Each structure stands twice: as structure tokens, then as C-alpha cells.
Amino acid sequence: MASPETKCPPSSNIHVMTYSNVDARLPPIRALIFDMDGLLINSEDIIHEATNTLLEKYGRPSLTQSMRAKLMGVAGSTNSDMFHDWAQLPIPREQFRRELGEQMKDRFPNCEPLAGAEALLSNLCRARNISTGAKIELALASNTKSTSYELKVSRPKTRRLLACFQSERRVLGDDPRLREGRTKPLPDIYLIALDSLNSTLDPALKPIQPNECLVLEDSVAGVEAGRRAGMRVIWVPHPILAFEYQSKEKDILSGRSGIFNIGDDWQLGEVDDGWAESIPSLRHFDYGKYDIHVPL
Q1: Contact 185/224 with Cβ under 8 angstroms?
Q2: Mean pLDDT of the region 133-139
Q3: Which of 68, 101, 228, 264 makes an SS bond possible with 187, Cβ 3.0 to 4.6 Å?
Q4: pLDDT band at residue 16 using 50, 70 and 90 as cut-offs
Q5: Is residue 7 part of a domain?
Q6: Phi, psi angles (nearest 5°) of residue 204
Q7: Is the pLDDT of residue 261 over 50?
Q8: Is position 5 within any domain?
């Protein structure tokens, strides 16, 4: 199995950092790639509320904590056999999918930024690497489709939050470069995001490498996708996820949760390899740990 160093994946208040405590064994961070749902905005909670509304409508119990944890961050999870075998709904799957879509269409315009998101993105928009002095590049990689994305950024506050990502550096779930069925936990969306960064990078600069990228994710599937892409990862789990998987945190951070069985284990990390960490919220992002300086 290849080590992280030899991976070759397939195709606010401003806190001024004046020091670096970066791990000298790792290259400087040049780019941060963000998930969106459940990390930057509260759309995961909105999906949970919409799902429970329909379950109640058809006389079924609300999502258990365990089931909710299994659904978070997985594209099409409420249309899966796992969910419907559990829910035992008295209506066809397609009807549930359609009604849930209508519920979310009504609710997504109410999305709000999550704790720490506005301050962190505001800081990173003008941040530089302490060691190199280079600008920190930003990209978005989200399973959400374009239509849902536009609903989620309906409010001015949420639109301003996501505006820090240049349109050509926003990779969504219906991006034509993302092949059908290749969503997280597969690495494709993060590798496409890296391509989008490099294609818009100053031509005088060397292309950014996967191990120079830091992925921020809330879901287990997203953490695995980032690790499979050969990138470093910060997991910012919803409190339900953090509780449900507390005994598996180290495995999740290495990409080895065992929840997904998709092969290509050579892409995964190793437990305690220093390439991933978990923090309780974006407010806890440690700029110095990643050699990042935020000027006044």
C-alpha cells in the first residue's frame, strides 16, 4: 500500500498569526477546499426537518440518531434501499422523493451560515502562507446540484458567504466533469476542484499538488473523499455525527471508517498519520497549525 507521501490518485474578529507551528514533514498549505452542506450552511438540519415532516405525514417515526448519521453527506441517501427499508413508508419511493424535493424547495431559501463560517472565509480570502508568502487559494466542492445551490444562497447573507468562491472554482454535484455515480466518498469532486484551482492559477506559479490542499468536511463520506484524493482533511462533524462515531474517529480521519465498500484501498490514509484532524466547529480552525497568516 502506498504511503500518503507517494500517493498518485487517478485522474469577524481578525486573529493575526505571527508564528508557525506547521508540521515540517508536510508541504505548505496552498489551497483550502470546502464542502458546503452542514459545514458552511445549515442545510443538513433543514433536510432533516423536511424528512421528518414527511415521515410524520405518513405515520412513520422520526429519524433516529443512528439513521440520521448514516444519511448525512451521502448523495441520494433518502432514495436509498437503506433508508426505505428502515422507513417502511406506505407510498412509492418516487412519490416520497418528489414530495421531499418540494419540501426542500420551500425550505432551502431559509439557509443560514453556520458558526464560524463567515469569519473563517473572510479571513482566508486575504490570508497568506507564512513560509512562502503566497496567497491561499479557495475552492468549493459540494454534492448539491445547481438548482438547489441557487435556492440555498437566496438570502443575501448566505450569498455573500459563498461569493468568496469564484464561480469557476465552485464544483457542484451536476458539474459535467463529474461522472454519474462518482460522488463522495469517491475522490473525483475534490480532484476536479483541484483542477479548477490550477486552471485559474497565476501561470507563473507551479501547479498545486493534492498534498498542498486542505479539505474541510462535515460528513464521513466527505472525509473519505478528501483522503482518497491525497489531500489533508479537517473533519467538522455535526454533534450527532461526533457522538454516533466517537469510537471510530481515528478510523474516519484516515478514511477507513468501513462504512463504504468501494475498493481502491491504496487511496486511503493510515490511522494517526497526521494528515487529518477533527474540530468541533469552524471557530476552532487553527491558522498557525497550517502555516496561515491573516493580515489586519
Answers
A1: yes
A2: 95
A3: 228
A4: very low
A5: no
A6: -75, -15
A7: yes
A8: no
